C-alpha cells in the first residue's frame, strides 16, 4: 500500500472513531436506503438458515450426517471421486425386514409373517429410492440456486455497501477537515463526494434488484413444494399397495384352518433304538462312540432331567501374540453400513494404521481394511 493510501485508511479510521466516541456528525442516508439495508441483512440470514434447515429436513440424523461427511473426507484423502449416500431410515428398516423375513421363510417350517416382512421391506426400500430422488431434485432446483444467491448475489451487494461505507467516511473526514481550515481543496472534496454518490447508487441498485426478484424466489419455493408433494404422493401410493397386500395376507391367514403340532420327546429315538426299531436320526450308542464324541453327546436321563452338555476339556488355548504395533480392542460388534467401513466382532484385536479425525480410526483386522468409530474400541497400543 502506498503512503497516500495508508494515510487515507488512517483518516477513515479516525473519522469512524470520532463518530462513535466523539460525536462527530456523519452524512445520513435516506430512509428508503436504510430500509433496504435491513431487508438485505434479513435475506442474508434467511438464506443461511434455509440452506441449513433444508439439509436437516432431507438428512435428519446428525450422527449420520457427521459419518457421511467423514466418509466423503476419507474418500478425498484416498483420491476417490465417489461420494457415499446418506442412509435413508426407510432403506435401513427395509434391509432389516428383508433379512429376517428371508430367514423366517426358509426351511421346512414356512412363515407367512416372514414373507409379509419381506414385502414390507421391499416397499420401504422403494420409498428410500423415492427419498433419494427428492434429495437430488431439491438440491438441484432449490438448494443450489439458494447457495448462489447467498454466495454471489447477496455477497456482491454487501461488498458495494462496505465500499460505500469507506467512501462515506473519506468524504466526511475531508469535509470535517475543510471546515476546520485544513488544506483540503474543493476538487478533493468534490471527488470524494462523487465517489460517495457513485457507491451509493451501485449499492442501492443492487439491493433494489435483489429485493425485486420475487418471481424467481417464489418459483424456487414452488419447486421445493412440488418436489415434497411428489415425494409424499409416491410414498402414499407405495404404502396403499402394501397395506392392500398385507390385508390380503391377514384374510388368508384367518381363513386357513389351524394345524396342530405334537412336540417330539427327546428320548423317543433312544427307546426306538433299544426296542430294535431303526431310526434314521437316532444318536449313536454311547458305548460305540469315541471318547471325544462322548464328551459332546447331549443325553437326557432320569438323573439329568433338563439334559446336560458335556464339554470337551482337552481343547488347548491358543497362544496370543503380544502386539507391539499400534492396535485396539473391539468393545462391541460393528456392522459396516457403507463402503469403506471395517466390520469386526467384540474382542477382536485391530491393527491401527491412521486416525481420520476425532471420531474415526482406520485399521486392519482379519485381512480386511477400512475405517470404524473410535467409541467402539479401546486403544491398547496408541498411534505414534
TrEMBL record:
Keyword terms = Coiled coil, Endocytosis, Membrane, SH3 domain
Q: Where does it mainly reside?
A: other
Give every BAR domain span. 18-255
The record, for Gene3D superfamilies, names: Arfaptin homology (AH) domain/BAR domain, SH3 Domains
- Whether Membrane counts among this entry's keywords is yes
The record's subcellular location field reads: Early endosome; Membrane
Q: How does it sit in the membrane?
A: Peripheral membrane protein
Concerning InterPro entries, the annotation shows:
AH/BAR_dom_sf (IPR027267), BAR_dom (IPR004148), Endophilin_A_SH3 (IPR035824), Endophilin_SH3RF (IPR050384), SH3-like_dom_sf (IPR036028), SH3_domain (IPR001452)
Coiled-coil regions listed: none
Family listed: Belongs to the endophilin family.
**PANTHER family linked:** ENDOPHILIN-A, SH3 DOMAIN-CONTAINING
Q: What is this protein called?
A: Endophilin-A3-like isoform X13
Q: Which organism is it from?
A: Branchiostoma belcheri
Highest lineage ranks of the organism?
Eukaryota, Metazoa, Chordata, Cephalochordata, Leptocardii
